[in-house]
Specification:
alpha+beta, three-stranded antiparallel sheet
Length: 222
């Protein structure tokens, strides 16, 4: 399995470059404008989070890090270290390197993102205003202890509930299991994230009414 390489402004995994700038403001289903400042890293300027009626997580994956190519400085920059590492900021690098803490990627299916956005008229109006810079977050990376991370990675079913500023995800194991496992991801806990570009049913702003397609965006130098 290919290991992730973490840099200060992005995370590279399986050939894709994920964003790290502004991660502390990002949650699953966040939307806003992609910003590309000349002297800083690209980031999502979050404007809100879609009010999803039936939120679903498609997959949770434990991501290993290539520590030969990832420095402690890069690992800890552009995030809310205290929240991401749950207070273990002084030992964060070693805890990740030893496997005591692990990185987990949560994904939302593209079709679910598209449906949720199109079912939210107020969100659609704002996204149309943002033009070509409109983005929606479909993937986030978070840090959790090894046992919890492995529990989520071994589940194929997830319960999701949204509250103000938080997303609660439950790994469900069905009848006969020893119990479900839950984690609440609040603002500030995101380590890195992926987001989607939007295609519309019309080219002119005044004629746009719905999103017809979403595709991966990637971090780049501009």
């Amino acid at each position: 399995m290919t290991d992730a390489i973490v840099k200060g402004n992005h995370l590279r995994f399986l050939g894709k470059n994920y964003f790290r700038g502004g991660a502390e403001s990002v949650q699953l289903w966040s939307y806003g404008e992609k910003k590309s400042p000349i002297t800083q890293t690209n980031y999502l300027e979050v404007q809100g989070r879609i009010s999803v009626q039936k939120p679903k997580i498609r997959k949770a994956t434990v991501i290993t890090i290539d520590f030969d190519k990832t420095t402690e400085k890069d690992l800890l920059v552009n995030i809310n270290v205290a929240l991401v590492f749950n207070g273990a900021s002084k030992t964060a690098y070693q805890d990740m390197k030893s496997g005591k803490l692990k990185l987990v990627k949560f994904e939302v299916a593209n079709e679910d993102i598209l449906d949720a956005a199109n079912a939210s008229p107020d969100v659609l109006e704002k996204l149309i205003d943002y033009g070509n810079d409109a983005r929606i977050v479909d993937e986030i990376f978070v840090v959790m202890n090894a046992e919890l991370a492995d529990s989520f990675a071994s589940s194929n079913s997830f319960g999701v509930s949204l509250s103000v500023g938080a997303v609660k995800i439950t790994a469900e194991f069905g009848a006969g299991s020893s119990g479900n496992t839950s984690i609440t991801l609040s603002k500030g806990t995101t380590f890195a994230y992926g987001m989607l570009k939007l295609d519309w049913d019309a080219n002119q702003k005044k004629n746009k009414t719905k999103i017809t397609k979403v595709t991966d965006d990637q971090w780049g130098p501009n």
